[in-house]
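notes to self, project folder thing:

trying the whole complex as one job this time. last attempt i did each chain seperately and stitching them together was a nightmare. two parts in total, labels are on each line so i dont mix them up again. if this works i'll redo the older ones the same way
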Amino acid sequence: MTRTEQQQGRIHSEAAEWHARLESPDMDWEAFGAWLDADPAHRDAYDAIALLDGEIEARRDAIIAGLPANDVDDEQPVFGARRRWWIGGGMAAAVAIAVLFVPKMATAPTVPMVAYSTGATQTRMIDLKDGSHILLDRNSRLALADGPSPRVEMQGGAAYFDVRHDPSRSFLIQAGDYEVRDIGTTFDLVMTPQRLGVAVSEGKLMVAPKNGDGTSIVAGKRIDIVMPTGEAKVSPVATASVGSWRSGQLVYQATPLALVANDLTRYVGRPVIVDPAIGDLRVSGVLAIRDGAGLVQQIEAVLPVKAVDAGGSVRLVGSDTR
Amino acid sequence: METRRSTVENENDDAGGLTAVLVANRPQLIRFFTSRTGSPAEAEDVVQEIWLHVARADTGPVVNPLAYLHRVGMNIVLDRIRERQRRGRREQGWSDVSIEQRGGEATDDSPSPHDIVDGRLRARRLATAIEALPPGAGRVFRRHKLDGLSHSEVAAELGISRSAVEKHIAVALRHLRAALE
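result (full assembly):
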């Protein structure tokens, strides 16, 4: 079916109107559904508008940098309106100005670090200005300076990173005495006081001792570092299982129990310590995280292991040791 | 782990409340996302993802839980469309770009210099198109989209109604779509 330009124009207008109304308190979702159903062209038109809008959001900083400063065309600012302007848009305006006048500030450490932490039952999505995302797992902490060259200081727990590759800036993660850099990828990072693990599901990155030479880790590989000794091991990982905690599961393939215990610690809310005698036991399979409480029992069910309550922590020992 | 409140009346401001709203309105959500995606099977997937999201997300109090669930689903649908496009582009790209193979693995997943230049050009085109918007729509659009003010904040600042803000945004989006076609 061919449409007149007029009909096409009407469909695009309607699509834009629906999109602008999504946040409205009296948005009528059923009517929107009926409109989408009325003609397949409606869905295509809506997709185009929503994608464009999403793209503008994702490229916001680059667009702002390409526009003249926002207040230039403000005619006769009334004092009241002006004041609200700064209260409401102060931060965004400050960012815009920084981008416009001092693009070389990129590496200056003027962007404040913001701390994020999660409790035992919640994850938290952190959206960075450049369109990258970090999903912070339960019982995890990091600090972020979301500047033109973002810096993350991982303090403990796990986080799943989806970082845009962009050679014009650097994205650096510090984790204890190590750092992750040259990132253009999605990957999972798990940190405990003793260990650091980075598993890459897409692209590649570099893991290195602070200021030292690094190891390149590509998709399908993981690196596990025992931090006090610096002993590191690179091994294969199924990309689909990287960051599986995001969907409430822990997926293991012949993973040493000592590494599994890192994950358990995060969900059980107490340190889970593995008797060195069984630290090399391998775990394969899928554990359901749920509220975390049942994880230790699940381990007891699949391995010849039993959990001993040791005061503030849980100790996993061989089930035949008495 | 969930802390239940003693008052049972319409407490929708925790994940448990949202999940309950989702369960109660599941048929309506499935119906809507079937319309949105054109596929009942995909609608099922989307509603499942909404559930995962609300079961785990750190949401503050939600004023209108059902609308919130719809909006979460709208974002999920958009992510899926983007992912499909990205995959489509990547597969297409493979026909004319040689990829470094190491031990059978493709190691070059980063955007090519070409993509990055593309991104810059694209941002410049968007900026130019935003600059060329009709003045009223352009100002509202910039305050909302680029400066991050909510619809009601823009309305208060410019002394216009919320629905006027929506109209301006719609006009702006329609112009931008046409300009970037």
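what i see at first glance: The CA atoms of residues 130 and 177 of chain B lie 11 Å apart.
need to look closer tmrw
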